[in-house]
Amino acid sequence: MKDLAIVMKLVVREKRDILLSILFGFLAGITAVGLFGASGYLVSKAALIPPLYTLIVVVSIVKLLGFVRAISRYAERYFSHRATFTILSHLRVSFYEKLEPLAPGIFQKYRSGDLLARIVGDVESLQNFFLRVFYPPIVLVIVFLSTIVFTVFYSISIALVLLGGLLITGFVVPYLFALRQRGIDAQVREERGSLSTETTELLYGFRDLKIYQKLAGKKAQLKQSSDHYIQEQEKEGIHASFSHAINTMVSLIVSWVVLALGVYLVTEGKLDGVFLAMLVMISLTVFENTTPMAVFPLHLEDSRRASNRLFSVVRDHDGVAEQVKSSNQLQRGQAYSIDLRHVNFTFPGEARLALECVNLHLSAGSKTAIVGPSGSGKSTLLQLLLKVQTVDTGEIRIGKTPLASLEQESLWHNTNAILQENHFFYGTIRENLLIARDDLADEQLEAALAQVDLDHFNLLDPVLEKGANLSGGEKQRLAMARAMLKGERLWILDEPTSSVDALTEKAIYRHLFKQAKDDTLILVSHRLTGLEKMDNIVVMEHGKIMEEGTFDKLMEKQGYFYEMKQIEKSVFM
């Protein structure tokens, strides 16, 4: 319920629309009771042939109540739905504000299909919280209590019957069905998340599945997931229909009890017979307000589960979120030193240390290469420097400022970063380059393309979604051009030219080192050629720093780096 309390806070922000919804909901409910009660009284009174003016007054009241009921129902729908849409808007903004700083690391924990199901499906489910959970019970109680107070003037026993009916249909029956609803709703959401995940993976992996002739099996798996989801939805629908049927049955039984008790009271002379039809009509009508309570357990559990799934995405990262709110910022135009002191890091859900007791000092303006076999922790180290992940223990400093106290946005703003996977948006070459900076002229963009050997591209050439029409080397060179155009003083490059041929790579690095002459540069690479120009080489394996030093010192030492270099020579000679 803690997550649902967050939704509740967003709901009560719309006080005006909430109060108006409750007011007009009460008016619509009480006028409906009055309308049918007056109709019952009119029928009974007309049978006694009263004066004409009496009938005219009662008929006028009936017409007035009908008119007020229609207007109130419309106003109640208008204000309640307006409040709902505004609440959903607040909910999306609030969730995005919490999710956005965590976005780089959140994808390592959640599969994209499941994350999409939470962000879209669970937010949409919460639209029923105000309409079906929050204010219907309030309106129900107010209308019922007002009706019971009115009924007391005619018969205390009938009023007590109505009160008992309120407790059974409004609370007892919904509570009993709510207990079973939890398990059903949990299964529905899990199956929906599974279906979204299978669908996303089929779309993303369609080409590979087709190549390896596994498409039929994946389709069968998707069909099975869809069937399971439909089965759970059917269970949910049957359960809701059964709840509604039980509630309706209890309401009718109460009305029959009111009728029987009213007849008894009339025969005993304790109730004027002209009011019997009115009381029966009131009992039939007032229980219409309990109809929303039949589906109350469904929507309550649906909202509780949706809020739990939604906010669990950001709840597990509260510590990270607090660090993101830090106020310290990097000064632009400076080349900072970097210090790592006793840094340990483990990926969530893993026991193995990804980084173990890493100590490293990188001077301002230095050029550092980090090398080592796959899985040695090179990319993980860069993720920590970019605050995509946070250290378990130890400390990282950028200049003299602890990384934990730096604003994430400030760090990224002052960094030219190229990761192993770089995203390219549907549009043109120009639009993808302007991500670096908005104030760049076409001449600057064309010069950057020339530096990375992409001058055969036109700025208006199209780029498909995820750069589908670009080769792996072209994507890396376009990413390098973006980094060069950004022109900040801290470079963090993760395998930036792994898919580029040796001659082009050499030309790119020549331009890179010329531009980053006085900047701090960190380069992760599997290739050991061309590292002679680096000020420092850090060799990693199994999350530990095995050795570090200049190229010449490491070769003279004939240690781990020397062995790697000899292996590379034997492979490529």
Automatic annotation (TrEMBL):
Gene3D superfamilies listed in its UniProt record: ABC transporter type 1, transmembrane domain, P-loop containing nucleotide triphosphate hydrolases
Pfam families documented for this protein: ABC_membrane (PF00664), ABC_tran (PF00005)
Organism: Halobacillus amylolyticus
Lipid bilayer topology: Multi-pass membrane protein
Subcellular location: Cell membrane
NCBIfam families, sorted: CydC (TIGR02868)
Major location category of this protein: membrane
Name of the gene: cydC
Domain ABC transmembrane type-1, first and last residues per copy: 19-288
Membrane-spanning intervals of the chain: 18-42, 48-68, 133-154, 160-179, 245-267, 273-300
Start and end residues of each ABC transporter domain: 340-567
This protein's record includes keyword tRNA-binding: no
Swiss-Prot/TrEMBL keywords: ATP-binding, Membrane, Nucleotide-binding, Transmembrane, Transmembrane helix
The protein's name in its UniProt record: Thiol reductant ABC exporter subunit CydC
